[in-house]
Write a structure and sequence with these properties.
The complex is a heterotrimer.
Chain A (H helix, E strand, L loop, with lengths): L14 H15 L7 E2 L2 H8 L3 H13 L3 E4 L3 E4 L5 H24 L3 H22 L1
Chain B lengths: L3 E11 L4 E10 L3 E6 L5 H9 L6 E6 L2 E3 L3 H5 L2 E5 L10 H11 L5 H11 L12 H13 L5 E5 L7 H14 L6 E6 L2 H7 L2 E6 L2 E7 H7 L1 E6 L12 E7 L2 E6 L4 H9 L3 E7 L2 H17 L1
Parallel strand pairs in B: 3-8, 3-9, 6-7, 7-8
Antiparallel strand pairs in B: 1-2, 1-4, 4-5, 9-10, 11-13, 11-14, 12-13
Helix pairs in contact in B: 4-5, 5-6
Chain C lengths: L1 H15 L1 H20 L2 H32 L3 H5 L5 H33 L8 H25 L2 H12 L2 H9 L2 H4 L11 H27 L5
Helix pairs in contact in C: 1-5, 2-3, 2-5, 3-5, 3-6, 3-7, 5-6, 6-7, 6-10
The chains are: A mainly alpha, B alpha/beta, C mainly alpha.
Chain lengths: ~130, ~300, ~220
């Protein structure tokens, strides 16, 4: 149903966070549809060979963000919000943009220049995509 | 029905060159506890007291509701024990050992045993003396796993194993969690394994428990702060900071009770916080041991 | 549930010591044959050899069946089973004793039968025979007890040396009791007070050794 999540201990980010990421990934690309049931906490823990508490935390955080819903006794499922995948993608973009802004500030780069750089990056990406086709 | 897998209260045990002091430890049913400590810290002694193999000098031990060592026979029906220094019978085959266990324990799961044989890659008709270290460890684990006991007590189950064997064992240990109510206590000095599968972590050093709490809270509380200290400014001692290393203008502060206010507190004094990093369990363990040893000496 | 674990442990010990058991039975049978059919000299030699074998077996058995459990580090495995230290001791004592009693009883019964069937040896020797036959049994009990309680080869060796070097002295003492040797050559077995007292003392000493063993075993606080 979900293939294998790839969790890495050498990844700097905590395991529960990696699990959250990978669940969001599957929703973003559409592998996991809105409203679709997902493995129980215990089942996922067994399958990923991680502690139950870690999966519990991942599910808890995801529920707080409104990405999944857990019903007592009925298990968990992806939130039935149309366009959830797209919304998650938007959030990802926000994070990247904020990160870029932060680094730009550290470099002392004015916002105008940052916007230019963003435009240049967009052009580069478009070119690379053309080469691939 | 008791909801604790085990509970040690005020347990002490004195040996000639080593003392286990005032141990308080408990684990709710259905969870995995990882016990981390250096060699000689007291992991094996704690486990032996838990199993009733060694009688404590003071304090109470209850395992699955049974008082130890008085009710050890009743308790051991539901406990699966394997330790690093335990050996099986050299001249007998794995098959003989499996039949032996099967004849004693009524809830031996023969089909699961067969599955484990395949997964672990073990030969039943081979005598134990022909087994390599890793195969021996897996054989001992097979014998306890196939019984599906309520509590597994494992003393260093992954020590000295190659990565593949370790992976096989961790897979089975987490697999135990599929059944609610079953618990595991395992000791290790391999922090990676403990970090991966434990719900609850306990640090032991020099005969004392220095910390015991659930893993996620633990990982959340420990942080490493990389600081830039301008010349002429003294680093203020802040609550929750257990260690500071300084070289010139750069410093690294380790905290065991991190809250964002801590970073703000530094910034107020003119110190720049470059980054706040999570720590791996290994780093936490080392920092914690050093900190606790300093405290004891003080 | 409980007693069957003791049973399994006993069977386990017999299975593990299969070789030793076969050897001891084999030795017993061979010596029997020699004593029955060969000439006077061979008969005496056979009996002596048999007796010596019993003494040696009395040292080897405890070493192999009892001490090995600790030496080969299988004790932790056994104690992880649903048994207490006392139950373990019971199982060990029973299994090891059975292994010794087989050749010992073979000797005793065949000797009695021989005395009964052939008339070469007078019945007057029977009490003394019983008294002498008890000695390796007592030695075996003492050495086994030492192995169980002492837990080390040092203790076992000390006990073995003590027992094996004491036989001559004990025989000397026994031979000095006139009422025991008086009726030695008579046609009837005479159970006078001396014989009864000595035999009772022997049985009593075994009971004492067993009691002391269980006392110490049950009080051990660091069983492993």
């Amino acid at each position: 149903m979900y293939g294998t999540f790839t969790l890495s201990q050498s990844d700097k980010r905590p395991m529960y966070f990696q699990i959250m990421e990978q669940i969001k990934q599957r929703i973003m690309v559409g592998d996991w549809a809105e409203g679709q049931p997902i493995p129980s906490i215990r089942q996922l823990a067994v399958d990923l060979q991680v502690s139950v508490i870690t999966v519990k935390r991942a599910y808890y955080e995801l529920e707080r963000e409104g990405v999944i819903v857990t019903q007592h006794g009925k298990g968990s499922h992806v939130a039935s919000i149309p366009g959830l995948g797209a919304r998650l993608r938007e959030q990802e973009l926000e994070q990247h943009l904020e990160q870029a802004a932060r680094i730009a500030a550290q470099l002392g780069m004015p916002t105008k220049r940052l916007v230019e750089r963003l435009r240049e990056a967009g052009d580069r990406v478009a070119e690379k995509d053309k080469e691939l086709i | 029905m008791n909801d604790l897998a085990f509970e040690l209260s005020g347990v002490s045990k004195k040996y000639r060159y080593f003392t286990l002091e005032d141990i308080h430890l408990k684990l709710p049913r259905g969870q995995i506890m990882g016990l981390i400590g250096a060699n000689g810290a007291g992991k094996s002694t704690t486990i032996r007291v838990l199993m009733g193999l060694v009688h404590q000098d003071s304090g109470e031990v209850r395992v699955l509701g049974h008082s130890m060592p008085a009710e050890q026979v009743a308790a051991k029906w539901d406990i699966g024990f394997a330790s690093e220094d335990m050996r099986l019978y050299d001249s007998m085959t794995l098959d003989w050992h499996m039949s032996f266990m099967q004849s004693i324990y009524p809830n031996w799961d023969a089909s699961y045993a067969q599955l484990l044989l395949k997964r672990f890659g073990l030969r039943v008709d081979q005598k134990m003396k022909g087994f390599s270290h890793g195969q021996r460890v897996k054989a001992a684990l097979l014998l306890v796993l196939a019984r599906k006991p309520q509590l597994l007590v494992l003393d260093e189950p992954t020590t000295g194993l190659d990565p593949v064997a370790r992976h096989e064992i961790l897979r089975e240990l987490t697999g135990v969690m599929a059944e609610e109510g079953r618990s595991i206590l395992f000791s290790s000095h391999n922090t990676q394994d403990v970090e991966q599968i434990s719900d609850h972590i306990t640090f032991i050093d020099r005969g004392r428990i220095i910390d015991s709490m659930d893993k996620e809270t633990y990982l959340d509380r420990w942080r490493r702060l990389r600081l830039e200290v301008p010349l002429g400014i003294e680093l203020p001692p802040l609550p929750g900071i257990v260690g500071v290393q300084r070289q010139g203008r750069l410093a690294v502060a380790t905290s065991n009770a991190f809250v964002p206010d801590l970073a703000h507190a530094y910034e107020h004094t003119g110190v720049r916080v470059q980054s706040i990093e999570s720590m791996t369990l290994e780093e936490i363990f080392v920092a914690n041991v050093e900190h606790s040893r300093e405290e004891v000496e003080a | 549930m409980r007693s069957s674990v003791i049973g399994h442990l006993i069977l386990k010990d017999w299975r593990l010591n299969r070789l030793l058991i076969s050897l001891s039975i084999g030795v017993g049978l061979i010596a029997l044959v020699i004593a029955q059919y060969a000439g006077e000299v061979a008969r005496v030699l056979g009996s002596v050899w048999f007796f010596v074998s019993l003494c040696i077996l009395g040292s080897i058995l405890p070493a192999s069946a009892i001490l090995n459990e600790r030496k080969k580090q299988t004790l932790a495995f056994v104690m992880s089973l649903p048994v207490s230290s006392v139950q373990y001791t019971i199982a060990k004592a029973l299994s090891t004793s059975a292994m010794f009693l087989v050749p010992w009883l073979t000797l005793l019964i065949s000797a009695l039968v021989f005395i009964e069937m052939r008339h070469a040896i007078p019945h007057g020797t029977i009490p003394m025979l019983l008294i002498l036959a008890m000695l390796p049994l007592i030695a075996f009990c003492l050495i086994s007890a030492t192995a169980l309680v002492g837990e080390s080869e040092g203790w076992l060796v000390a006990a073995s040396i003590l027992c094996n070097s004491s036989y001559w002295f004990v025989w000397y003492l026994l031979a000095r009791i006139p009422s025991l040797t008086a009726n030695w050559t008579g046609p009837v077995a005479v159970w006078n007070s001396a014989a009864v007292i000595v035999l009772s003392a022997e049985v009593g000493s075994i009971a004492f050794i067993v009691g002391v063993t269980f006392f110490f075993q049950s009080r051990k606080r660091n069983f492993i």
